Every structure is written in structure tokens, then in C-alpha cells.
Predict the structure.
Amino acid sequence: MEMKITIQNELTVEDAKAKAEPVLISCLESFQGKDVNMDWEGSKCQFSCTSMGLKITGSVEIKEALADVTIILPMAAVMFKSRVEETVKKRLTAALKKDNS
């Protein structure tokens, strides 16, 4: 199941990348994500991990005013969709605020 989250970005693309990566890793690890892989190419990142034996993949694209996050959960993890979405949105929104230095 694919979920898309769009978050306002108040930072430069480079600053947002630097703040987004540890936040995304933390979010994945909070859902028991293991072997987290982040592969950046410019302002786009493909990420993956394994959680409870299930593969989770996704991407984030940092833009001037927005960050677009896509997370693909296996059907067996659909029950966690709202919790994952809420966690990522809350943590990434806080990280991409200009006053959060």
C-alpha cells in the first residue's frame, strides 16, 4: 500500500536534506526498522528497511517549499498506516521549520 505525504519546507534544499535524513531514519527505527538504507541522488532519496520481517520502501524529494514523501507498506502492515503517516508528518514538519535550528 502506497501512502503519500506532503510537508511544507521552510529551509533551503540542502538544509532540509540534512535535517530530513536523520528524522526519516528515526521514524523507520521507531517502527522496528532494521538495515535502514538511504540512497540520495541530488534532492531525491530512495529508502528501505525491514520491519518485523517485512520490506518497507519509499522515497523523499526535497523541493524549495515542499518535501514529498512516499512510503510503500506491505499489505501485512496496512494496520499501521495511520500511525506511520502521523509519525512521519509530525517529525518531518517540525524538522523542516525555519525556527528549528
About this structure: The longest strand covers residues 33-41. The chain has one domain: 2-95. The chain has a mean pLDDT of 93.
